[in-house]
Amino acid sequence: MHTYFKTTRPLALVMSLSLMIVFSAACSGAPEPDPTPKTNKGAAISADPGSLIVYSGRSESLIGPLIDTFQTMTGIDVSVKYGSTGEIATTILEEGSNSPADVFFAQDPSGLAAVTPMLKPLSGFLTNLTPDWARSPEGQWVGVSGRARVVVYNKQNVSEEDIPNTLKDFIDPKWKGRIGWAPSNASFQAMITTMRMLWGEEDTSAWLSSIQANRPKIYPKNTPIVAAAASGEIDVGFVNHYYLHRFMKEDGESFGARNFFMNGDGPGSVILVSGVGILKTTGNRQNAEKFIQFLLSNVAQQYFASQTFEYPLIDGVTTHRLLPSLSELTKPTIDMASLSDIEGTQRLLRNIGIIP
């Protein structure tokens, strides 16, 4: 069972982000949430800014500081229900018209696609902030950050020249016992959904069976795969790019793993977005749109770039210096909203015996 709770971040972090927001708004002219209600004459008035309920498939450690800063800047009282994106999407569908959620913040596009019938179209000023490929064609949700799929590798045992530019080549028997993957992980399943779209059902099934025959080591999520690559427990693993940089933030250049960005136009180079949508049942549309506007502000986007090592999705925000820019990456031309058939992917994985 999920519970609602709010967290208290270190005051220095919240105040630092708050000051950054004020500075960014002054310098860039970009719209930022206005924390103080005004009369028509511009004088401040006393008013309850209200509340907001966010259902989050993103972890508290990733987005908690942003939510706290949003509360500080706007005075809006935010309650959050955390869980995996799949769990939260299922909860929203089960609650139906009785859901108390105002906003769904999903880790990947498949979660948003699963509940699209329950989302209302966003205002154009929000959808126009993001690139076409990173939002719903019907404008029911927008991406707020990007995560590249990469191959993480042990830098002592593997050189970049050894790593294929396509996932297809990992079926070679020379990779037997050397691969790590997380078949139950939502991002991995989103990658396989992309693979089904690009390669078709038959070739995807053949690839999965061939990798299975190479006896990959199974992990519950990305983080232990990166740790295993660094320690030499595996030589390569299929992960999202930003987990490596969290380790390197702590351990520096001595960390034993590195990322390889595939430049083949295939599922191994897909850019997955985290994104947000507003529930049709909300009575809180104004605050919900303020929250999304905040997530697409310069400072929140810079937070994703500098603190969580993700890709910003709006113009004018600098990608982290350790990462290639999005424009440098070869990514498949794919509509994020088309990654809705996660059930088909799970069914395929079960049929092959990869997940229970």
Structure characterization notes:
It is a single chain. With 356 residues, the protein is of the alpha/beta class. Strands 1, 2, 3, 4, 5, 6, 7, 8, 9, 10 and 11 form an 11-stranded mixed sheet that branches. 37% of the residues lie in helices and 16% in strands. α1 crosses α2 (60-74) and α6 (186-199) crosses α7 (201-213). The longest helix is centred in the first third of the chain and has 18 residues, at 11-28.
Task: Indicate the radius of gyration in whole angstroms.
Answer: 21 Å
> Beta-strand level of the residues, as a percent range?
15-25%
**Unreliable runs, pLDDT <50, ≥5 residues?**
18-31, 35-46
Shape: globular
Order of helices and strands: EHEHEHEHEHEEHHEHEHEEHHH
Q: Mean of the pLDDT scores?
A: 87
What is the helical fraction, as a range of percent?
A: 25-40%
Number of strands: 11
Structural category:
alpha/beta
Separation of termini?
22 Å
Number of helices: 12
Q: Largest beta sheet, briefly?
A: 11 strands, mixed
